[in-house]
Amino acid sequence: xxxxxxxxxxxxxxxxxxxxxxxxxxxxxxxxxxxxxxxxxxxxxxxxxxxxxxxxxxxxxxxxxxxxxxxxxxxxxxxxxxxxxxxxxxxxxxxxxxxxxxxxxxxxxxxxxxxxxxxxxxxxxxxxxxxxxxxxxxxxxxxxxxxxxxxxxxxxxxxxxxxxxxxxxxxxxxxxxxxxxxxxxxxxxxxxxxxxxxxxxxxxxxxxxxxxxxxxxxxxxxxxxxxxxxxxxxxxxxxxxxxxxxxxxxxxxxxxxxxxxxxxxxxxxxxxxxxxxxxxxxxxxxxxxxxxxxxxxxxxxxxxxxxxxxxxxxxxxxxxxxxxxxxxxxxxxxxxxx
Length: 338
Ligand SMILES: [Zn+2]
Fold this sequence. Notes:
Largest sheet: 6 strands, parallel
Structural class: alpha/beta
Number of domains: 2
Bound molecules: zinc ion
Number of helices: 14
CATH architecture of the largest domain: Alpha-Beta Barrel
Number of strands: 12
Order of helices and strands: HEEHEHEHEHEHEEHHHHEHEHEEHH
């Protein structure tokens, strides 16, 4: 029998056997539980293997397997609206998937996959992306590395003979650019390497036209993720309020939706706190999500929802079960990584 199984199916069967006891124990001890999962971009397995920043992408071939696994094990995939409703009575087992920022692949690859499985998905949009005002420097850098044999930096030329060289260059350069100077560093890089910044932006950004189409899909829920992807805790109150309210106003104006839900960029405890949860309420949102790992249990505060970030390298059902059973949340709290 084993010989007839594909590599993917074999991997899944093995990981299922490993994690069944954990999930059965969680079922015994918890009446109901919800797990909110988030990621940024998606790429099919073949492309995923080549991407210099591939941890930022979910392998959509794996996501397809995982959505099948959830159905098989009676996990219901719901919207954030439904997740917050269920947290008031604490019954059932539910999962929500949210995509933060929103790039072109949200429209082209990821939402169609959820549609195939007939389950909902939440999009938390950074409005500076479809407005074309937020430089997508990491996407532009990665694209250039992926499609070049060498790049020019102010310090000289870097040769990129293979995947390892491209990945190492991505991490080294992104690390150096990260911060308020990123946009300027990226503009200089584009000039040196003859990159059309505008064309590169629209190669990766989601557009308002795409969002209009997605808005009309009953399986798609759209919420806010700031205007400029700022770290909210680092802003003065009026700046923080602008990021949340400005984003909501823009979504309402451009898409005519209620924009009831919000997700904090970065989302760890140092990135958003009590003041920011209150701002989310004042800005008119009905919920706010963090990226603090954990489960949604009965009585969960809707303005500090836990979410588990799924990275590109998390390509096993076993790792997902650790999120679904609350083990990763427990480990994060025990080690202070919240
Ligand atoms: Zn984000």
